[in-house]
Structure formats: structure tokens, C-alpha cells
């Protein structure tokens, strides 16, 4: 009851003063959505998602690679084995200089230090055989002490040539397998079943890329259709597998597909506008030569597909986070309107945008550090360097992926706010001493705004 002053004016009670927005009584309490409303929402989501997933499956079927890929040059298989070996000793010798030993001034030294490595083969038909190989340039005796595991190349003897052994690389099987097991263990221990299902989805995603995307691009199929079809199927599988079949996951999937469509459209326009051919490095040039007449088309498609696939992981991260944020806001404030849920979700999304854009930019920067070091050494002009093909591709890939990511956040937030209010959470109910219950409706205020 309000307190009356001596003059008869009513004063608000201490808990009723203006500016107190934590809990308000006597407001309209939203009703719990009926099962029929929830069912209609699920049907509406299914009516949107199922045709999209079906269209992606049809796209994969129409562009599925058949037969052998035709190349301009024949790549003949060479009889070669890669057995492992254990180093037993090394010998430092003088060898004739080659192009691998070229100095910074362009000259090739007459003689250079070379390292002859003695090793015992530990796998394959030649197990136990003692061999000698020349280590690659720059390798010292300290790099390959006795007991080091290496891989060697074995060229069997033919009618015209004798048997040849050569250095291939270090045997990194043990450290790589150990790190991979540690990765799996950390995910399963922290995320448990959901983490395990995410790993299964990751394996399935790489199966799609290896069995469909790469062969289809090699055969000159439409890169946009291949990228969108594969990405849609991958996202549908990994999202539902890791997060379960729910409206929250469906809202995140809708936002992801919207972001993928935006990224693909921007990528096509940017690639044509910037005249990106896909032939910007030694490896891509060699691949173009192998593909012949279809090389330019295939490499341009390879760039577009790489642009779409590169942003899948980050896009999935932000969309599922935004959908979960809206659901949690709804659970904390069942009386919030769609507008309030959207605004609350976007406050979270803006923070996510800032950190995720850094993630994309620094990931590409880290991968390009060797090239950046060359630029530092040669002191090339900044403008022509950044607009060259190799850098232009990375810049376009980073910018387009970031734009698609930024657009996906409000799209996902809006979709999630719409879905959760049509099917969503009931208001929290607290028991009273008399056995009755009343509803508390919490509003979503801006934490950065002064009351």
C-alpha cells in the first residue's frame, strides 16, 4: 500500500521508485504459447529449411563428379616407397653448389657444406637395410642426432637404373598423432557427448570436401553450385549432429545459410570486379598448367569455393552463439518482446563481431607471414604489392568473409527472436507462502545506460 503524507499525497514505496527495472508487478504477463502455436512454428521452419537442404542435395547430385578427370599433361605414377628409418650417424662433407644454395646477391657458391646421413630402414620390405642419403640444404648434424626418425624415398632398381635412396622428410607421425589425440581428449573431456558429436561432424565435413568438392572442381563443375551445395549439407549435418534437432539449432542454421548466401554473392562480385584469376602463386600456376584449357576456370572456381569454405567455421560459431543468446535472454526474461530480445541479442553480437573479425584477419596474417617477410626484405612499394594477385586474393577473402559474418549476426538474431517468441518460454513462476503463484516479468534494460 502507498504511504500517505500529512497532506494526503501518496508516496511510492521504496521498492516502487522510478528507475527500478529489475522486477515489475501488475504488468501484463505473457501467456504460455499453446502447443498448436509451437507446432505451427516448427512447420514453418521445416517449410523453409527442408526445400533448401533438398535443393543442396539435388545440386550435389547434378554436379557429382563422374569418370576420370582430364588434364593437359599426363601424370605418370612412379614406383616409389616412403619407408621410415632411424638415423645412426652423420658425416659433414663438401658438395657442389646448386640453385638451392643461391645467395641473396644471386650468385651460386662453388662448394657448400653437405650432410650425409646414415640410417637403418625400419619399415617396408627393406626393413633392417643400412642406407645413406643426403639431407636437404640447411640441415645440420645437430638437427638429426642418432635415433632421429626420418622418412626416406626408395626408388627400386629398373632395367636401366640402379636402386636409389633419397632424403624425404622427418617422420612426424608420433608427434602429430599425439597432438591429435590430445585435441580429441580435450574436446571430449570439456564438451563430453556434444564435443564427440562435433568431431564426428568434422570428419563427415572433410569426407564431403574430399569426395565431392575437390573432384567436382577438378572436372570444371560450376563452382558456386558446388560451394553452396556442399556448405549447406555440411552445415545441416554438423549443426544438428552437435546441437540436436531443435528450434534453436534450426534458427542458427537459417542464419548460417543466409550468411553463406551473402558471402557467396559478394565473393562472385568481388572476384569479377577485382579481376582475380586464382593464378597467384607457384602452386596455382603449376596446377593451371596441369589442367590446360580448363585451368583458369577451375582455379577461379577454386578461389570462390575456398572463400565460402574458409568462413564456415566462424560463421557457424557466431550463428549458434547468437541463437543461444536469444534463447537464454528469453529464459531470463519471459516477458521480453521481440524488439527487446533483438536489441539484447545484438548487444552480445556486437562484442562477438569485434573479436571474430580479429580472428579472421590474424588467421590469414599468420598464414602469410613468410610472404610478409619477403616483402620486408625486398622493400617493395606497399601499394602495388597489396594490389598484386596473391595479396588481393587474401584481402578479398578476408573482407568478404567478414562482411558475410557481420550480416549473419543480425539476421540470426532476428530469426531467433521471431522463432522463440512464437514458440518460446513461459514466464518464471515463484511460489507464495499461501500456496499461490505469481509471475515476475523481467525487462531487458541496457546495462550501459544509467537509470
From TrEMBL:
Annotated keywords: Membrane, Transmembrane, Transmembrane helix
Bias-annotated ranges (Basic and acidic residues): 431-451
Pfam families according to UniProt: YibE_F (PF07907)
Disordered: annotated segments: 1-38, 428-451
Keyword field contains S-adenosyl-L-methionine: no
Biased composition (Basic residues): 18-30
Segments traversing the membrane: 44-64, 173-191, 196-217, 223-242, 254-274, 294-315, 353-375, 395-420
Protein name: YibE/F family protein
Species the sequence originates in: Cellulomonas triticagri
Amino acid at each position: 500500500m502507498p504511504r500517505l503524507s500529512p497532506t494526503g499525497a501518496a508516496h511510492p514505496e521504496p521498492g516502487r521508485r522510478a528507475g527500478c527495472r529489475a522486477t515489475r508487478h501488475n504488468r501484463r504477463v505473457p501467456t504460455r504459447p499453446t502447443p498448436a502455436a509451437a507446432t505451427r512454428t516448427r512447420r514453418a521452419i521445416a517449410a523453409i529449411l527442408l526445400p533448401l537442404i533438398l535443393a543442396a542435395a539435388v545440386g550435389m547430385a547434378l554436379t557429382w563428379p563422374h569418370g576420370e578427370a582430364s588434364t593437359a599433361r599426363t601424370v605418370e605414377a612412379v614406383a616409389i616407397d616412403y619407408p621410415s628409418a632411424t638415423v645412426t650417424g652423420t658425416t659433414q662433407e663438401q658438395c657442389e653448389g646448386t640453385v638451392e644454395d643461391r645467395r641473396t646477391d644471386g650468385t651460386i657458391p662453388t662448394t657448400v657444406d653437405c650432410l650425409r646421413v646414415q640410417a637403418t630402414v625400419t619399415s617396408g620390405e627393406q626393413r633392417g637395410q643400412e642406407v645413406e642419403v643426403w639431407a636437404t640444404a640447411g640441415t645440420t648434424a645437430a638437427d638429426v642426432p642418432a635415433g632421429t626418425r626420418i622418412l626416406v624415398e626408395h626408388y627400386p632398381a629398373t632395367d636401366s637404373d640402379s636402386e636409389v635412396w633419397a632424403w624425404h622428410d622427418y617422420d612426424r607421425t608420433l608427434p602429430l598423432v599425439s597432438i591429435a589425440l590430445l585435441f580429441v581428449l580435450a574436446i571430449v573431456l570439456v564438451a563430453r557427448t556434444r564435443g564427440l558429436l562435433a568431431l564426428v561432424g568434422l570428419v563427415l565435413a572433410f569426407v564431403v570436401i574430399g569426395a565431392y568438392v575437390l573432384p567436382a572442381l577438378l572436372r570444371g563443375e560450376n563452382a558456386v553450385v558446388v560451394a553452396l551445395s556442399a556448405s549447406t549439407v555440411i552445415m545441416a549435418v554438423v549443426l544438428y549432429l552437435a546441437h540436436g534437432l531443435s528450434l534453436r539449432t534450426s534458427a542458427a542454421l537459417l542464419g548460417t545459410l543466409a550468411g553463406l548466401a551473402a558471402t557467396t554473392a559478394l565473393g562472385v562480385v568481388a572476384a569479377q570486379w577485382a579481376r582475380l584469376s586464382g593464378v597467384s602463386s607457384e602452386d596455382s600456376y603449376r596446377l593451371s598448367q596441369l589442367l590446360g584449357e580448363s585451368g583458369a576456370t577451375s582455379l577461379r572456381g577454386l578461389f570462390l569455393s575456398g572463400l565460402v569454405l574458409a568462413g564456415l567455421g566462424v560463421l557457424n560459431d557466431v550463428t549458434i552463439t547468437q541463437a543461444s543468446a536469444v534463447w537464454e535472454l528469453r529464459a531470463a526474461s519471459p516477458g521480453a518482446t521481440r524488439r527487446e530480445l533483438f536489441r539484447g541479442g545484438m548487444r552480445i553480437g556486437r562484442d562477438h563481431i569485434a573479436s571474430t573479425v580479429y580472428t579472421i584477419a590474424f588467421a590469414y596474417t599468420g598464414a602469410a607471414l613468410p610472404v610478409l617477410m619477403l616483402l620486408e626484405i625486398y622493400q617493395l612499394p606497399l601499394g602495388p604489392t597489396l594490389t598484386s594477385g596473391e595479396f588481393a586474393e587474401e584481402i578479398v577473402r578476408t573482407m568478404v568473409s567478414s562482411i558475410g559474418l557481420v550480416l549473419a549476426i543480425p539476421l540470426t538474431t532476428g530469426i531467433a527472436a521471431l522463432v522463440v517468441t512464437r514458440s518460446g518460454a513461459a514466464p518464471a513462476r515463484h511460489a507464495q507462502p499461501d500456496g499461490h503463484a505469481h509471475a515476475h516479468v523481467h525487462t531487458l534494460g541496457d546495462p550501459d545506460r544509467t537509470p
